[in-house]
Amino acid sequence: MSFGGTVLNTVGVVFLTHAVYSTHEHTTTTPNTPLPLDITLELLFSILILTTGIVFTSPALKPIQWSKWAGQISQEGQHGEGKWTQEGEEILSEGDPFAFLGLDAGLGGKTEGRKGFWDVRGKRKEYAAWVKEGGK
Questions:
Q1: Does residue 13 fall inside a structural domain?
Q2: At a CB cut-off of 8 Å and minimum separation 6, what does 20 contact?
Q3: What was the pLDDT predicted at 81?
């Protein structure tokens, strides 16, 4: 349907250009009169045709699969970006653009990365150890 969408886009742009030109001509010749109905309808028609053409030529939407993306990032680990510092060291990337938030820390024994969050599981373990020791 991309050929039909391209044709609709072309026709819509032609009608839109003509409507804009007609509006310009109308406002320069008669500045204080309202816009005629035929120019308004041509403008609305061109927008409708152009929008339909854009919808037909746009690629299909892809489903959002954050779990696959997050799993791939966690499996890749650190890797080089192909960029180097002035000292000649390679710049490494974790792969996760949201790693600075530390949202994955606290899971699987990692608790040092969550700044500003209270580690409930760690505090429960500390409390259980404190109770076993007799509360000293």
A1: yes
A2: 43
A3: 64
